[in-house]
């Protein structure tokens, strides 16, 4: 058996009377691409945000790299990379400037051009984020998850809205990131994406 880098046990999230996450359990192994697959509204993003330490849970247990979410959320934050919504990028800054800004926030020294090379955006280095195509924006947003050299990255519906070619490019990029040793956990509502890209998946069924 491999090492579980994420362990989720009986995770529950209620918003008032509404059960958004209903006692979910799964393990993610180190070095895999793990998919949370299910229809819209199933609770995938909520689950991801809880593991990312961004949203409080109602009950259940979560461990990331052995750190208990209830006690060591600060340690968890240090080893994860979270994808920001592309709409959150300052529209007036170019890609190099944005990477420098985020590196400063993480207190890291990053070779911005090297990072853009990884996501095949060197020729857009001096462009503003608003000038990128949908696929380029997603690739850039994945680049920002890598700034702090994380052990795990979290991608929330990374290919939604992309054309087939851009989706395949993004799949290749995600596979390269995994090949470099980073564990990837992502949400998707595409069956084919889960099948082609993910090593293992957790499936949310629709309630009758
Ligand atoms: P998914 O990512 O699978 O599409 P979400 O995790 O975004 O699903 O949402 C799960 C359910 O929780 C949805 O029904 C959504 O409307 C509800 N929900 C999400 N955030 C909140 C919130 N802040 N307050 C109340 N309900 C919410």
Q: Tags for this entry?
A:
globular; binds adenosine-5'-diphosphate; 7 helices; 4-stranded antiparallel beta sheet; 5-stranded parallel beta sheet; single chain; alpha/beta; 208 residues; 9 strands
SSE topology string: EEEHEEHEHHHEHEHE
Overall outline: globular
Strand content: 25-35%
Q: Can you count the helices?
A: 7
- Bound ligands, named by name, code or SMILES: adenosine-5'-diphosphate
Q: Order of strands side by side in the largest beta sheet? A: 6-7-8-3-9
A few lines on this structure:
The chain is α/β, with parallel strands linked by helices and 208 residues long.
Describe the structure.
The chain is an alpha/beta fold and about 210 residues long. The chain contains 7 helices and 9 strands; from the N terminus they run βββαββαβαααβαβαβ. The protein has helices at about 45-50, 75-80, 95-105, 110-120, 135-145, 165-180, 190-195; strands spanning about 5-15, 20-30, 35, 60-65, 65-70, 80, 150-155, 185-190, 200-205. It has a 5-stranded parallel β-sheet with strand order 6-7-8-3-9, sandwiched between helices. Strand 4 (about 60-65) and strand 5 form a beta hairpin. Helix 5 (about 135-145) packs parallel to helix 6. The radius of gyration is 17 Å and the shape is globular. The N and C termini lie far apart (about 35 Å). The structure holds adenosine-5'-diphosphate. Adenosine-5'-diphosphate binds near residues 18 and 40.
């Amino acid at each position: 058996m491999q090492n579980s880098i994420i362990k989720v046990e009986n995770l529950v999230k209620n918003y008032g009377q509404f059960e958004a996450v209903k006692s979910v359990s799964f393990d993610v192994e180190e070095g895999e691409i793990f998919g949370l697959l299910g229809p819209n509204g199933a609770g995938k993003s909520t689950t991801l945000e809880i593991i990312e330490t961004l949203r409080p849970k109602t009950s259940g247990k979560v461990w990331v790299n052995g750190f208990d979410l209830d006690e060591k959320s600060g340690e968890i934050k240090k080893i994860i990379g979270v994808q920001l919504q592309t709409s959150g990028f300052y529209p007036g800054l170019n890609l190099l400037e944005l990477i420098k800004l985020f590196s400063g926030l993480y207190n890291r020294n990053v070779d911005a051009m090297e990072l853009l090379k990884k996501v095949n955006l060197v020729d857009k280095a001096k462009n503003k984020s608003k000038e990128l195509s949908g696929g380029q924006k997603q690739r850039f947003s994945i680049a920002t998850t890598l700034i702090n050299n994380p052990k795990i990255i979290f991608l929330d519906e990374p290919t939604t809205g992309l054309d087939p070619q851009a989706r395949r490019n993004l799949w290749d990029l995600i596979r390269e990131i995994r090949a470099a040793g980073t564990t990837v956990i992502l949400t998707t509502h595409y069956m084919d994406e889960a099948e082609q890209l993910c090593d293992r998946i957790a499936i949310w069924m629709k309630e009758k």
